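Feature request, filed as a ticket because there's no other form

It would be nice if the structure record came with a short human-readable summary line next to the tokens. Right now we just get the raw output. Example of a typical job, pasted below so the devs can see what we mean:
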Amino acid sequence: MYSLNVPVPGAVERLANDLHPKLTGFDQVRDRHAVVCKRFAAAEDEYHRLRERLRSSLSPTPAFEATVTGIDAFETPTHGLGPVVYLAVESPGLYDLHRRLVDTFGAVDDELEGPAYVPHVTLARDGPPEAVDRLLATDIDPVTWTVPELHLWSRARRATAWRVSLPQP
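Raw output as currently delivered:
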């Protein structure tokens, strides 16, 4: 399994770290942060083929803007225990890229990658309602950045397998 991720800038990492004290009570707190653009159900031995297909699919993709706009939650996530609290991300360029890749590669999971796709940075999951409410009541300043590259994450390796630079428009 692979995922094409949007790395987040230092300002978003700092925001997640600043929110860390409010994540007490959650069973799972993320220490790595990224935005998933698209998942791929490919085995490790299919890596080179996947990378080459992605290379041609991504070749017309310029750098695009993304903005963390606030904190939200999935009360009942598609998979795993909930609730999941996250930083909401708005990005027309990311939505367009996601749709284009789903059209090309198909959806790994129709619920996650279909019309209900929600770009986000997961902070934590499986916490008590009062912890979720505390986070949802937290105001944050928006963080906007230009996405200069994408990372192909290998679940088996637990590492970035490939980075692709996006040309500036």
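Something like this underneath would help us a lot:
The helical segments are 10-19, 47-58, 92-105, 110-113, 129-136.
The chain has a mean pLDDT of 91.
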